[in-house]
Design goal:
The chain contains 32 helices and 24 strands. It has 944 residues and is α/β, with parallel strands linked by helices. β20, α29 and β21 form a beta-alpha-beta unit.
């Protein structure tokens, strides 16, 4: 290969060479960016000796060979033009390259750090010499390109000055990574047309100052009243308040009717009081430790959510601040879910009326994987919300980690956003007018292109991670600088006084008036609507104040049920369905006619049909939701001719509620968090997330622990989310057996959620209907089956669907004489069918088997009534497939013992266990071991 290149180089050393233009262009690319050319050429150029007669490129160790210099010199005279004309044309190209270099890399030399601690790296691309330009060219006039400065040409010194002003002052723009040319040109025009510094009226500037005063005023007020108390104050990032204020007002002007906000701790209290209009007196009560909830545990003040309405030029806007725990970025997908639910409720397919605003910390934004997952969902069908405004309060330090090479592997904390080509706008928090400009551009971009955009508000934290922390122990240089650094408000006040916008005495008046309002307990959010439009709120009234009940009327008219079943099986005439799927639908037509017993897939989809028929929406997502992980659902048909899809449940009748079923991208954490957010906003819909295998819910454990199980008791947030978690021991190994039933049961208390393990098609039909028709909204965790989807004995009839109900405990199906029963086996899930088969094969008429289909809330009274049916009971056994330290045994045995003892003294004390031995892994990985364990546990249940 090297010899071939050398031969090519010999050929192109002469003007008659056929590759002159190609080789020179290649060499110029090498000088600008060595990695942009093929490895073979780069290796050759690296070995070339320098030629002293060539002009300097100001590139260290850049090799230049005489023949290349000669080629370039002679090439400029080809084609009939003069040498000087060719040189001028070449310089014109270099000027345009210089302009482009500022667009690409100007942000690296921008003055975005208020403290001036950011290491200013030299960017060769921004030097004149890099582009073979010099000071002697500064007065020469060059074309500027159609998108620059609004005129065709200008002297080079004016061009450079404009570039410096636009890209190297208080705003650092990153947008050249965007592929879409229209978006890039739009952003260029917005910044270049005003040199990144539009001129604001005195009225606007006074308003900015008032909002800065409010931001600083609240922090000073709390610091004086509660010194050393944690509040995660906004000091150092006060521009956040005028930023959010401007964002809401501008969004409202576009016709936005709702803004959903998610954020972690820093600045949360300031946002609550100064933007959302929370009463200062109510906040003070929280600082004083007064109980705010009538029931439940409550939560710390900087986790609390809030909602209110504010007035904007475009009308009233509802603001909703999401509740969230200390798990940093996990609130991001929750906000997206709530936004999507509001958009669906409004039929806002484009996302014009509901805006998501997610506020991040810099360290968390770079470090938390759920941020990537949230970005990944931004343009997907099931999860897109028309673009999110991501706002980073960039303190330049994560708790005590301030070295960038400890905090991340990227130049900026925002680099993760480039994966979705989001524009990234870095801005100096001490320049509030630049902050406002960036905010306006961000909102306009989102409304124009319906894509995510990132604002990186570069600031600092004046008091350390929290008010009880001493930051100088780990950041001595930073905090030496901070001690002498004036606040953003003080700096802006000096600027406004210099410009004659306000007087010095007036600046102090702003402070006094704000403090006086706080002392009086008055609202200080100046746009707050005191009598809000209630139609902007989500109406939870029908679902409040209901006591827990495990039963509900889930019967359904038989005639209408068969009509729905028939419609569900209809496929357009020109639709070619795959062969196995066609057989599924042929069988379903027989089931609808009553000539074939119903299987799981048909009963489940029929439940959705009845729920839609009664006016409730249905939303189902999961990694194989349309087909079903185990190919049992087939709710979405795929035309074998052209790939088109048909979803029968979307065509049940005219004007039906929404039915959405989507295959999700390969995520658990963000997707489940999204569905939680959706379900807390749409109580009128059945919202389901299905795991590919129940074990994979591990990847979303934070959502389960911090939101699903405890959201009601911490924040009084109701949620009717349903989880379908395939669970059952089939010999598929440790990661495809257990949905970790024990973890869910461990989280159960205060009737916070339901954990069920249905074993028949009728049971899943009524369980899903119960979740919709009851006016109770509690999370429902379903340990759903795998092998039972096609088990010959796991079938139901149309009559059981139409006339039945969900049985929390299924009685024994065998014809046993109650007085002959000495042993009672309790179980849940598919192990029942193994137990029933053993009993039949061994003719054990002395043993009854009860299926506990609802493990929480545990139906003690119902179980006791069933115990009482067997007067000669001597032994009670709990049988499970899971190892002894897992499954329901340790979390539910106290219910069983209590119930058994209530029937017969000592019966509960002797309750015994039949199952796998305690194990660190959920299941065996070898089929032979699995089979032997399963045989043994069934035998133990009967013969211990």
């Amino acid at each position: 290969m090297q010899e071939g290149i050398m031969e090519l180089m010999r050929q192109t050393s002469h003007m008659s060479g056929g590759n002159v233009h190609y080789v020179e262009d290649l060499y110029e690319q090498y000088l600008n960016e060595p990695t942009s050319i093929p490895d073979e050429w780069r290796g050759y150029f690296d070995q070339l000796p320098a030629y002293e007669g060539a002009p300097s490129h100001d590139i260290p160790l850049a090799p230049v060979r005489e023949e290349f210099y000669n080629i370039g010199q002679q090439r400029r005279t080809l084609g009939g033009g003069s040498s000087s004309e060719g040189a001028e044309n070449k310089k014109q190209v270099r000027v345009l390259q210089l302009i482009n270099a500022y667009r690409f890399r100007g942000h690296q030399q921008a003055d975005i750090d208020p403290l001036g601690l950011r290491s200013s790296q030299r960017v060769p691309d921004l030097d004149l010499s890099f582009h073979q330009l010099s000071k002697s060219d500064m007065d020469t006039e060059f074309q500027t390109g159609s998108m620059f400065m609004g005129k065709d040409s200008a002297p080079l010194k004016e061009i450079v000055d404009a570039l410096q002003q636009t890209y190297c002052r208080s705003i650092g723009c990153e947008f050249m990574h965007i592929v879409n040319t229209e978006e890039k040109r739009w952003l260029q025009q917005r910044f270049e047309s005003v040199r990144s510094r539009p001129k604001y009226s005195n009225e606007v500037r006074r308003h900015i100052f008032e909002r800065l005063t409010a931001a600083e005023g609240l922090e000073n007020y709390l610091a004086s009243k509660y010194p050393g108390t944690k509040r995660f104050g906004l000091e150092g990032g006060e521009s956040f308040i005028p930023l959010v204020d401007e964002m809401i007002q501008r969004a409202g002007n576009y016709g936005t009717r709702e803004v959903v906000i998610g954020m972690a701790h820093r600045g949360r209290l300031n946002l609550l009081v100064n933007i959302l209009g929370k009463s200062p007196s109510e906040l003070i009560d929280e600082f004083d430790g007064k109980k705010m909830l009538e029931r439940g545990s409550g939560d710390v003040k900087y986790h609390q959510g809030f909602s209110s309405n504010v007035m904007t030029p475009g009308g009233e806007v509802h603001l909703a601040l999401a509740f969230n725990p200390s798990h940093l970025e996990i609130v991001s997908p929750v906000v997206e879910g709530s936004v999507r639910a509001r958009q669906d409720r409004r039929k806002d397919a484009e996302g014009d009326q509901v805006l998501p605003l997610v506020v991040h910390g810099d360290a968390a934004f770079a470090g938390q994987g759920v941020v990537m997952e949230t970005f990944q969902m931004s343009q997907t069908r099931a999860y897109k919300t028309g673009g999110t405004i991501h706002l980073i309060i960039n303190n330049q330090v994560g708790f005590t980690t301030s070295r960038p090479d400890d905090a991340r592997s990227t130049e900026y904390c925002t680099d993760i956003a480039k994966m979705v080509q989001a524009p990234i706008l870095h801005v100096n928090g001490d320049d509030p007018e630049a902050v406002i400009h960036v905010t306006q551009v961000a909102i306009d971009y989102r409304q124009q292109f319906k894509r995510d955009v990132v604002i990186d508000l570069v600031c600092y934290r004046r008091r350390g991670h929290n008010e009880a922390d001493e930051p100088s122990a780990t950041q001595p240089l930073m905090y030496q600088k901070i001690k002498s650094h004036k606040t953003s408000r003080a700096l802006y006040a000096e600027q406004l006084v210099r410009d004659g916008v306000i007087g010095e005495d007036e600046a102090k008046t702003f402070v006094d008036e704000y403090r006086d309002s706080l002392d009086k307990g008055n609202h200080v959010a100046n746009a707050l609507v005191k009598q809000p439009n209630q139609s902007l709120f989500v109406d939870w009234t029908p679902y409040l104040g209901h006591e827990w009940t495990g039963v509900a009327d889930t019967t359904f008219n038989m005639k209408r049920l068969q009509e729905l079943a028939t419609v569900m099986c209809e496929v357009p005439e020109d639709y070619e369905v795959q062969r196995q799927v066609a057989k599924v639908y042929e069988d379903r037509r027989k089931m609808a006619a009553g000539s074939l017993a119903l299987n799981w897939g048909f009963a489940e989809t029929l439940s959705y049909a009845t729920i839609l028929d009664e006016g409730f929406g249905v939303r189902i997502t999961g990694q194989d939701a349309g087909r079903g992980t185990f190919s049992h659902r087939h709710a979405v048909l795929h035309n074998q001719k052209n790939g088109d899809t048909w979803t029968p449940l979307q065509h049940m009748k005219e004007s039906q509620p929404d039915f959405l079923i989507r295959d999700s991208y390969l995520s658990e954490e963000a997707v489940l968090a999204f569905e939680y957010g959706y379900s807390t906003t749409r109580p009128d819909s059945l919202v389901i997330w299905e795991a590919q295998f129940g074990d994979f819910a591990n990847g979303a454990q934070v959502v389960i622990d911090q939101f699903i199980s405890s959201g009601e008791t911490k924040w009084a947030r109701l949620c009717g989310l349903t989880l379908l978690l395939p669970h059952g021991y089939e010999g598929q190994g440790p990661e495809h057996s257990s949905a970790r039933l024990e973890r869910f049961l461990q989280l159960c208390a205060e009737h916070n959620m339901q954990v069920c393990m249905p074993t028949t098609p009728a049971q899943i039909f009524h369980l899903l209907r119960r979740q919709s028709v009851r006016p109770i909204r509690k999370p429902l965790i379903i340990m759903s089956p795998k092998s039972l989807l096609r088990h010959k004995d796991a079938t139901s009839t149309l009559e059981e669907l139409a006339e039945g109900t969900f049985n929390m405990i299924l009685p024994d199906q065998a014809e046993l004489a109650a007085e002959d029963v000495k042993r009672l086996i309790l179980c849940s899930g598919k192990v029942y069918y193994d137990l029933a088969n053993y009993r039949n094969e061994n003719e054990r008429r002395d043993t009854a088997i009860l299926r506990v289909e609802q493990l929480y809330p545990f139906p003690e009274e119902l179980l006791q009534s069933m115990f009482e049916q067997y007067p000669n009971l001597e032994k009670v056994v709990w049988c499970q497939e899971e190892p002894q330290n897992q499954g329901a045994w340790y979390q539910s045995q106290h219910h069983m013992r209590k119930t058994a003892d209530a029937v017969k003294a000592g019966l509960g004390r002797d309750l015994s266990f039949a199952g796998r031995a305690a194990s660190a892994a959920p299941a065996a990985g070898y089929m032979a071991v699995h089979v032997e364990q399963q045989r043994q546990l069934v035998d133990d249940a009967f013969n211990q």
